[in-house]
Amino acid sequence: MYLKPSQSRRRSIRLRNYDYGQTGGYFVTICVQEQKCLFGKIIDGQMQLNEIGKIVIECWDSIPQHFLSAELDLCVVMPNHVHGIILLKTVGARAPRPYPHSQPNRTSAVPSPVLPNRRTKIHLPTLGQVVAYFKYQSTKCINQHRDMPGTRIWQRNYYDHVIRGDIDLQRIRQYITDNPMQWQLDRLHPNNFTKKSS
After folding, report:
1. Are the beta carbons of 80 and 188 closer than 8 angstroms?
2. How far is residue 93's CA from residue 113's CA, in Å, rounded to a whole number?
3. What is the pLDDT of residues 84-124, one digit of tens each?
4. Are 35 and 80 in contact (CB under 8 A)?
5. CB 153 within 8 A of CB 142
6. CA 53 to CA 38: how far, in whole Å?
7. What is the separation, in whole angstroms, between the first and last Cα of the chain?
8. Is the C-alpha dihedral spanning 145, 147, 150, 155 positive or negative?
């Protein structure tokens, strides 16, 4: 069956003509399929991760092991979504300014990358590739844990915001930090959104 182009393409929520492979900071929100609360509960303004939520954070923390050019800043796993900051940088360099890497009380077991020589071809991923890898790995691990192969965990797309500078970065960090305390008001809270009829 042939579909017209307007029928076969989903509307992109990425910035038009923006290179998502360039160095910089990105704030991403990745939502669970059908907004199901799979990862735990908010109790007294604190996120209490269940076993699946712990798998999600482990997969998030493993991103730099797969992509040397990706650094992670603050992240929060909520009952039905994840907010996080991903910094894409040149391999062997520090995170690009004005997006300094700062994540108190979290350490990384990832060794510092070595600068490539001229013959080494380093693949610098796009933001989409980093997010796709995280979604794939976390889905695989969650489905193995639950013995439910082939179950879809994440929505097809994700939301992103290109971080424009230090003030923007600090605002986003504050939003991530405060997100569990604001859960009842969150637009992704199950009581705050209307399910679309199929």
Report:
1. yes
2. 8
3. 999 998 876 555 554 444 443 343 333 334 444 444 445 57
4. yes
5. yes
6. 7
7. 22
8. negative
